[in-house]
Design brief:
Strand order of the largest sheet: 1-2
Structural class: mainly alpha
CATH class: Mainly Alpha
Order of helices and strands: HHHHEEHH
Strand content: 5-15%
Largest sheet: 2 strands, antiparallel
Distance between the termini: 39 Å
Radius of gyration: 19 Å
Helix content: 55-70%
Number of strands: 2
Number of domains: 1
Shape: globular
């Protein structure tokens, strides 16, 4: 007879990691539904949104800036940015002072697709999280606290 596996939690619904994983999968499914018609993955959307957000304050947004903004691995960011460049949504130009860095900018079609995607994603988020009602603000604060506590690990 196989050895009984010992779990810390009495049931899956007592495990925050399990619940977060389940919630994330359901949320990603909803995101995929609204992003597929725009020819974007959720990761591509996050990085495009980071470019758009960072570009509001700087004309010299780099891959490292985008990785920091999105809490993403720089190598993964590089690969996804190449895909976004192939799709015509961004340009990557040499940095004026740092030969290792590239300046990332949205193209006109990148701006259009990003604006459409933001509307779709924000509406999907509002619908997905509507069940929280007045607790949404507290939920967001809790998520920010967890992100801040764990982002350097």
């Amino acid at each position: 007879m196989p050895k009984e596996i010992d779990f810390h939690f009495k049931s899956p619904n007592d495990s925050p990691g399990y619940l977060l994983g389940q919630l994330t999968m359901l949320w990603q499914r909803k995101q995929k539904k609204v992003l597929d018609p725009l020819d974007l993955t959720q990761t591509q959307f996050v990085l495009l949104a980071a470019v758009g957000w960072l570009s509001k304050k700087s004309n010299a947004v780099t891959q490292v800036d985008i990785a920091k903004q999105s809490n993403a691995d720089t190598m993964m960011v590089s690969k996804v940015l190449r895909t976004l460049e192939d799709k015509g949504f961004i340009t990557r130009k040499e940095h004026e002072t740092d030969t290792r860095a590239k300046i990332i900018r949205l193209t006109a079609s990148g701006e259009v697709v990003l604006q459409k995607a933001i509307i779709e994603v924000e509406n999907a988020d509002l619908e997905f999280f509507a069940a929280l009602g007045a607790k949404l603000s507290s939920f967001n604060k809790d998520m920010v606290q967890l992100i801040d506590k764990n982002k350097n690990e």
